[in-house]
Amino acid sequence: ETGVTQSPTHLIKTRGQQVTLRCSSQSGHNTVSWYQQALGQGPQFIFQYYREEENGRGNFPPRFSGLQFPNYSSELNVNALELDDSALYLCASSPGPFYEQYFGPGTRLTVT
Amino acid sequence: QQQVKQSPQSLIVQKGGISIINCAYENTAFDYFPWYQQFPGKGPALLIAIRPDVSEKKEGRFTISFNKSAKQFSLHIMDSQPGDSATYFCAASEGYGGATNKLIFGTGTLLAVQP
């Protein structure tokens, strides 16, 4: 059984650009949640996807958007990148919306 | 009301000692309290979790103590080892009572276990 995987591992983008981050959920998991972790802080909830529908959103602007595919993998898209978007982006999968969440290794995004 | 307050910010413990990390919350709708362990450059790993119907849960060297009336919970690491050196996060969520199982994280505790 493979765990949660994320790609790419690291990414450097310029302010104003757009970025897409990818997540493959653990086998048997139909729910994916995305979190942003700034340096030295705890993860902050961005949104959750359950069976391809958004199932809750945190306090992030609309330029943060996502998708979930029929195989339950997911993408996080961020438009008009800002310097403050530099962070570790974490994906967590779970067997359902109200079950334990298991995190992937994250994607380190640097915006210059 | 959505915050989870975690202390201490950092902790140094001798090998074999007990590490204790505390968290407090305000939202009485929280009903799921996990602890995560994070090593540098890695994602958080689920360590142990508790629901409010029990006051204590133990898994190996890790124990969660939960005080519902005080709205506090803590992680105890017995016989701490240098390999336990990591950042520990407490978290909370509303579970079935909320619209989504979003985790609200504490600010983290950097634990260093000295040999």
Description:
- The complex is a heterodimer of chains A (112) and B (115).
- In chain A, a hairpin with a 6-residue loop joins strand 4 and strand 5.
- Chain A contains no helices and eleven strands.
- In chain A, strands 2, 4, 5, 6, 9, 10 and 11 form a seven-stranded mixed beta sheet that branches.
- Chain A has 112 residues and is mainly beta.
- By secondary structure, chain B is an all-beta fold.
- Chain B has strands at residues 4-7, 10-14, 19-25, 33-38, 45-50, 56-59, 62-67, 72-77, 86-92, 104-105, 109-114.
- In chain B, strands 2, 4, 5, 9, 10 and 11 form a six-stranded mixed beta sheet that branches. Chain B has a five-stranded antiparallel beta sheet with strand order 1-3-8-7-6, with no helix packed on it.
- In chain B, strand 4 and strand 5 form a beta hairpin.
- In chain B, 34% of the residues are buried.
- The A-B interface holds A 4, 6, 33, 35, 40-45, 48, 55-56, 58, 90, 92, 94, 97-106 and B 6, 32, 34, 36, 41-46, 49, 89, 91, 95-96, 99-108.
Summarize the structure.
The complex is a heterodimer of chains A (112) and B (115). With 112 residues, chain A is mainly β. Chain A is built from no helices and 11 strands.
The best one-word shape of chain B is globular
- SSE ordering of chain B: EEEEEEEEEEE
DSSP strand count of chain A: 11
Helical stretch tally of chain B: 0
Shape of chain A: globular
Main beta sheet strand tally, sense and closure of chain A: 7 strands, mixed
- Determine the oligomeric state from the structure: heterodimer
Low-confidence stretches of chain B: none
Strand content of chain B: over 45%
Q: Provide the gyration radius of chain A in Å.
A: 13 Å
Counting DSSP E segments of at least 2 residues, the number of strands of chain B comes to 11
The N- to C-terminal Cα distance of chain A equals 37 Å
Percent helix of chain A, as a range, is: under 10%
- Classify the beta-strand content of chain A into a percent band: over 45%
Q: Compute the average pLDDT of chain A.
A: 94
Main structural class of chain A: mainly beta
Radius of gyration of chain B: 14 Å
